[in-house]
């Protein structure tokens, strides 16, 4: 079964409130086999719209990634960033 990768690009409007999301989300990701591979502000923008923060999370499967995103725990964590961050998220199935 191929792994899956959750890729998020974020522009943070209020870092003081966004930190609550950053504190809540990692334990939910781990609960669903998520492993943070990259997370941070340092990136080289080559094409497209620029974002402040980038995150890549590896999951054991596409289903694990979708279950995580749709879980009540993650949806609660997401509430912390509503209105204070612009987020673009995609889940990509890996190659066998």
UniProtKB/TrEMBL annotation:
InterPro entries reported for this sequence: Dimeric_a/b-barrel (IPR011008), DUF1330 (IPR010753)
Keywords: Plasmid
Pfam families the record matches: DUF1330 (PF07045)
Domain DUF1330 span(s) in chain numbering: 3-95
Highest taxon in the source lineage: Bacteria
UniProt protein name: DUF1330 domain-containing protein
Organism per entry: Pseudovibrio brasiliensis
């Amino acid at each position: 079964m191929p792994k899956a990768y959750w890729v998020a690009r974020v522009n943070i409007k209020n870092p003081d409130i966004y930190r609550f999301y950053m504190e809540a989300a990692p334990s939910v990701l781990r609960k669903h086999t998520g492993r943070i591979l990259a997370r941070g502000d340092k990136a080289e923008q080559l094409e497209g719209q620029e974002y402040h923060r980038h995150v890549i999370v590896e999951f054991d499967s596409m289903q694990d990634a979708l279950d995580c995103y749709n879980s009540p725990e993650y949806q609660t964590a997401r509430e912390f960033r509503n209105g204070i961050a612009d987020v673009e998220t995609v889940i990509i199935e890996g190659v066998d």
